[in-house]
Design a protein that fits this description.
The chain is mainly alpha-helical. The protein has three domains: 54 residues, no CATH class; 150 residues, no CATH class; 149 residues. 75% of the residues lie in helices and 0% in strands. The chain is built from 13 helices and no strands. It is elongated. The N and C termini lie far apart (122 Å).
Length: 375
């Protein structure tokens, strides 16, 4: 068996690199394979370089770099088929999970929210990215690749906007608006002018562009504009201030004509404490006055449960209020009207909870005055 020297191994390695093989792993594999052939077939009495050239020529048709090109092609195709199978599987999974989630949601059964989150997550972060990556890889023209990239981003933002909307997470409107604006001013123009130049796709491009543009505009009409949103926040803040002032007036009247009732006073003070907590969390101020607009202290669309979930002490106060109301409602002859306990539904907007707390206070105060009138 022929014994290869270190100098000959170095010569073969340099020659492989010179012939256009850049991948280190492929260089090592070729070097090992060529050395094995040399050890098996070489003769000690013949010229090394001549024998080497005769053997290396077996590895290619035109040039050695063909091997690297074919290797890259095989690796790419392997990833392509893997990605394609993953895309199809994730698409089927997301559709199935979303369908189950929608059915459970309509039937008001548990598990709907979790299924919707999983389905949209798989759709947004697995199916859509893979689909547009494969589409971009299949396209040769640069404009087509741009269309695939922009379309993928828009589709992901739209699905995530729906997820945020369903879960009542902040940023849903902003995400949906951004995705639709990208569609209108980014994706649709590029898609239109790219397909319009081709006579074979001209008509289809025009019709599709019109339908996409119309769909985006119709969806945008369902999203509140920032100015309209602020006006709504101003109005609902003003409504709370009016309601709160009514409570304060009723408190002064009740204190003027009747002695304080321990049970109603406990309920009143606990409601005040919870209102202060919610206002501080929502607006940054413990109390609101007529200058709330200048201070930009607005009651928005936040969810009550989001604030209470991170404040165990306030949850205890809410439980204490519920217990106090139960005692109040069950006491003999204390309340003419029962106190509504819908305030304990935490899946409500902060504004609704604040108004419900005001209503509880009004109920116990009016009951105090009615007791005096009956005496």
């Amino acid at each position: 068996m022929y014994v290869i020297s270190d100098a000959q191994i170095e010569f073969i390695s340099n020659d492989i690199s010179t012939r256009g093989i850049a991948m280190a792993s492929l260089q090592h594999d070729l070097l090992d394979h060529i050395c094995c052939v040399i050890e098996r077939e070489f003769s000690e009495n013949e010229d090394f370089e001549q024998q080497y050239l005769a053997i290396i020529s077996r590895f290619y048709h035109t040039e050695l770099s063909e091997i690297e090109t074919e290797t890259i092609h095989l690796l790419t195709n392997k990833n392509y088929y893997t990605m394609k199978k993953t895309m199809i599987a994730s698409g089927v999974l997301s559709v199935g999970v979303l369908t189950a989630g929608i059915v459970l949601k309509f039937l008001h059964l548990p598990g709907a929210a979790a299924l919707l989150v999983v389905g949209i997550f798989v759709m947004s972060f697995i199916f859509l990215p893979l689909m547009f990556i494969l589409r971009a890889g299949e396209k040769q023209e640069k404009s087509q690749k741009i269309i695939a990239v922009i379309g993928g981003i828009c589709a992901m933002l739209i699905t995530l906007g729906v997820l945020f909307k369903v879960q009542h997470w902040p940023g849903a409107n902003m995400m949906s608006t951004l995705s639709l604006l990208m569609m209108i001013f980014g994706f649709i123009p590029v898609y239109f002018f790219s397909g319009f130049r081709n006579p074979a796709t001209k008509l289809n491009t025009i019709v599709t562009s019109i339908m996409m543009f119309t769909g985006c505009i119709l969806i945008l009409t369902l999203i509140r504009a920032p100015h309209a949103t602020r006006n709504d926040y101003v109005q609902q803040t003003r409504n709370f201030i009016i309601s709160d002032q009514t409570v304060k007036n009723e408190k002064r009247l009740a204190d003027a004509v009747a002695e304080k009732d321990p049970q109603s006073e406990i309920i009143y003070q606990k409601c005040e404490s919870l209102k202060t907590f919610l206002l501080q969390s929502e607006t940054g101020l413990p109390k609101l006055d007529g200058n709330f607009e200048k201070k930009d202290a607005l009651i928005g669309d936040s969810w009550t449960g989001d604030y209470f979930s991170g404040a165990p002490s306030q949850m205890r106060k809410l439980d204490e209020l519920k217990a106090a109301i139960d005692r109040y409602n069950n006491s003999d002859g204390t309340a003419f009207r029962k106190v509504d306990t819908n305030v304990f539904e935490l899946r409500k907007r902060v504004q609704s909870t604040l108004l419900a707390l005001n209503q509880i206070q009004l109920t116990v105060l009016q009951n105090r005055r009615e007791l005096v009138a009956m005496q």
